[in-house]
């Protein structure tokens, strides 16, 4: 059981004791802190709320909404939605902020409050620190009965989001429709079961098979869209003779594809392929976090642009994209950010752009994958016990590898000739992530294993 308080929101497991898990008291306290911050800037703020399909979603949603009403806030409740839809709705509503109720890729026992600013982007570190401080002090002032806030339910924004994808200049609906794709979707028992088939139909894809399409939050497998969790999708793509498979996470901001033979296209290459397509139509720069494949840098340079790495986390990628005027960016976990649509990871625009690129390719998805190098990223994690001094461990590792180029902007990134390894604590789980990339799978795995052994040795020391 866990409760993780970060500058971008609060995430934890449902049940247990307050301040140790995500209990109703914690939900109310952090909702009140966020609402109090907004109310200090605007006496009658408006906040957009939306949730994914988790078992605890309705309970958390009710607590959040009623807490905000108690602060005199106007709430626009989208109900079951996607993270990117809520982000876009904040701007469409000219709201002061938003709360997305989702724990993204975490298992079913988790939920979270993701906090947005008036631009529909994750709040800044400064605003996040203010929310944490207000929550710790419980410095709230609720309104009198005559000044209670209002609730407006609006379920139209998903269709508006899909329309925005269809109308996006680089999404080629005619080419997609002409290809007569047959698509299998793993909707992981959440919002994707509604959003992705609806988008595909709007794109002109008539043959869609949906796996795990009941929105009940009882995820049929680990909800993180990694190869080891997508065996069912892979098998169905082969069995049904589909053109491709699509997998999203529960809140539909991560995206990956399965080729027609059941092999993985590679979540790292979702962004690479989309960026290649976008850069082929408009020149510019790109950004991804430093745990993402080096292939994006190579693609960007080939198109005459510049590539810039950022710290891990959507808010950091967005900040760097704005600074460098990037035309496309995102994260190697299948998160696509298209800035002139909105500054947020969005699987729906990712699908539209990816299928547009594939529609302009003569052969199938397996052939399309050969356009890009076969770099391999070994993705690993070590669970942390309480009171582990991660900084001290990283200091020891940095000292051990002091002869190698090291970046300390976000944890430790160590370069070994053309290979790299990135160590960092997770923003969403009590773990250290260890990612390593090489041209060879064995080399990447060996680099990651070596660093994992270092971490374990230093923890035990």
UniProtKB/TrEMBL annotation:
Superkingdom of source: Bacteria
InterPro entries in the cross-refs: A-D-PHexomutase_a/b/a-I, A-D-PHexomutase_a/b/a-I/II/III, A-D-PHexomutase_a/b/a-II, A-D-PHexomutase_a/b/a-III, A-D-PHexomutase_C, A-D-PHexomutase_C_sf, A-D-PHexomutase_CS, Alpha-D-phosphohexomutase_SF
Cofactor field: Mg(2+)
Keywords: Isomerase, Magnesium, Metal-binding, Phosphoprotein
SUPFAM superfamilies (UniProt xref): Phosphoglucomutase, C-terminal domain, Phosphoglucomutase, first 3 domains
Pfam families, per the entry: PGM_PMM_I (PF02878), PGM_PMM_II (PF02879), PGM_PMM_III (PF02880), PGM_PMM_IV (PF00408)
Alpha-D-phosphohexomutase alpha/beta/alpha domain ranges (all copies): 8-141, 161-262, 270-369
PROSITE patterns: PGM_PMM
Record domain Alpha-D-phosphohexomutase C-terminal: where: 396-448
Family assignment from sequence similarity: Belongs to the phosphohexose mutase family.
Protein name according to UniProt: Phosphoglucosamine mutase
Organism per entry: Flavihumibacter stibioxidans
Lineage of the species this protein comes from: Bacteria, Pseudomonadati, Bacteroidota, Chitinophagia, Chitinophagales
